[in-house]
Design goal:
There is one protein chain. The chain is built from 17 helices and 7 strands. It is α+β, with helices and mostly antiparallel strands. It folds into 3 domains: 135 residues, Globin-like (Orthogonal Bundle); 122 residues, Four Helix Bundle (Hemerythrin (Met), subunit A) (Up-down Bundle); 155 residues, Reverse transcriptase/Diguanylate cyclase domain (Alpha-Beta Plaits), CATH 3.30.70.270. The strands form 2 sheets. It has a 5-stranded mixed β-sheet with strand order 2-3-1-6-7, sandwiched between helices. The chain has a two-stranded antiparallel sheet with strand order 4-5. Strand 2 and strand 3 form a beta hairpin. It is elongated, with a radius of gyration of 36 Å.
């Protein structure tokens, strides 16, 4: 809220100049009624056993005085803001506080009945309305803080569970950067609201945990077109958090709401960029084979569907090659799984160097790989399969070990006419059938089929 917050509240509530003047003119009378007010209120508290639930007095010592002076300036807001904070810290719910203020209203009305002055009564009632507005603001801030904490916890839990679905851990450093930023923002909120002592609070963007991560190389992971906006938002979060806390220290809480609201908006941008980075890590992790660092079986289905659409749209032949390393099991049995893993890595590297830019390689599983291709000439798809077979046959694998080896592969290749309507499963089955024929026919060969009807 800005400095003219009290004027805004008065306008919204409808407190007129004449009503305020009536309260001020009767100030001496109202001050004399303080014992009556205290008596009525304490009797009400005892009747409902309210006071036994509270450790401290329900009102500040200057609550009544500030209330009946009817000078709606910053001090009034500060006192009532602090009073609202005290009620919240005491564990009173928003409904409890509204009941308390409702009783305050009734006592004031009964106090001024003998005056038969409607303007005075309205002025006091509108003053209660103003206090209620401040209370609403304070409780809304704490509700925002509670929701912020809950959202942060749920978001972190969601990300961790998402990565668990693919049997991986969430990226620790990146996730920690997100958590650290959320914790800083929450701590700034709590400090500005007086919920925690703000000693040694790091307001410099280079001293917070997120800032340290950025300075240690994290900034390089942020997309170039988002860097400047991200840096500015991070700096704005710290600046606004600092201003909110300074105003709280200087007893100008009327400004805190606006600062914290703007801080949350800036923080959303920071969090969205970090969440985008984490989501990209998940996409890569869920669609990449972690041993060979090429696409995995999850990615294959989506890429095949894209190629089917592309083939039909541009009238290209659709190609699918399924490749299997010949006699791979004996390598694992004789030299161990670490040796077999190294073979798979090096075979993948040969595949990457053999295919064209527009082709897509995937590790289907075990020692089986797929290559997706599109071409204007179906013969080129089969030529690609043969080129891969020859290159692997001519390569030597595991040269860094005591047991370098040479390999052969069997490949099944199909090229489909763009006007054919075949499902992904049907296309894979046809290529797999060609692979089976290649193995049956002696391995180290390509079996190819052009399908145009």
């Amino acid at each position: 809220m800005r400095k003219n917050n009290m004027h805004l509240i008065k306008e919204m509530i409808g407190l007129s100049v004449s009503e305020a003047k009536a309260v001020q003119d009767h100030n001496e009378f109202l001050m004399a009624q303080m014992p009556y007010f205290d008596s009525c209120f304490n009797h009400w508290l005892q009747k409902f056993d309210f006071e036994n639930t509270l450790k401290d007095p329900i009102f500040r010592t200057d609550f009544y005085t500030i209330f009946v002076y009817c000078e709606f300036t910053d001090p009034f807001y500060s006192v009532m803001y602090d009073q609202a904070l005290r009620w919240h810290r005491a564990g009173l719910s928003h409904n409890h506080v509204m009941v308390i203020l409702s009783k305050v209203r009734k006592i004031f009305i009964s106090m001024v009945e003998e005056k038969a002055n409607p303007c005075l009564a309205k002025g006091l009632c509108h003053t209660v309305d103003m206090v209620q507005s401040i209370v609403n603001s304070v409780f809304q801030l704490h509700e925002t803080l509670h929701n912020m904490k809950k959202r942060s916890e749920l978001e972190v839990d969601r990300m961790q569970r998402t990565f668990q679905l693919i049997s991986l851990s969430a990226p620790k450093v990146l996730l920690q950067a997100f958590i650290d930023h959320q914790n800083w923002k929450i701590r700034a909120y709590e400090a500005a609201l007086g919920d925690i002592v703000d000693a040694n609070f790091p307001f410099s963007t280079s001293e917070c945990q997120l800032g340290k991560w950025l300075n240690s190389g994290g900034l390089e992971t942020i997309p170039e077109d988002q860097k400047m906006q991200f840096i500015e938002a991070h700096e704005k979060v710290h600046e606004l958090g600092y201003l909110a806390l300074q105003d709280a220290r200087a007893h100008h809480p009327e400004k805190i709401t606006a600062f914290l609201g703007e801080m949350e908006n800036a923080s959303d941008l920071v969090c969205n960029v970090l969440l985008q980075l984490i989501n990209e890590v998940f996409i890569r992790a869920s669609t990449m084979d972690h041993l060979t660092e090429i696409a995995n079986r999850n990615a294959f289905g989506g890429q095949l569907e894209q190629n089917i659409s592309l083939s039909k749209r541009h009238q290209f032949w659709l190609g699918l090659i399924v490749m299997d390393i010949d006699y791979f099991k004996p390598l694992n049995d004789n030299y161990g799984h670490a040796y077999g893993d190294q073979v798979l890595k090096e075979v993948s590297q040969v595949l990457v160097s053999s295919v064209r830019t527009e082709d897509d390689i995937c590790r289907w599983g075990g020692e089986e790989f797929t290559i997706l291709a599109i071409d204007t000439d179906p013969a080129n798809i089969h030529n690609l399969a043969e080129r891969i077979r020859i290159k692997i046959e001519q390569s030597e694998f595991c040269q860094s070990t005591d047991s370098p080896t040479q390999l052969t592969v069997s490949l099944g290749s199909v090229a489909l006419h763009p006007l054919l309507d075949k499902t992904s499963d049907e296309i894979f089955k046809m290529a797999d059938e060609q692979l089976y024929l290649a193995k049956q026919d002696g391995r180290n060969r390509v079996k190819a089929r052009i399908i145009d009807n």
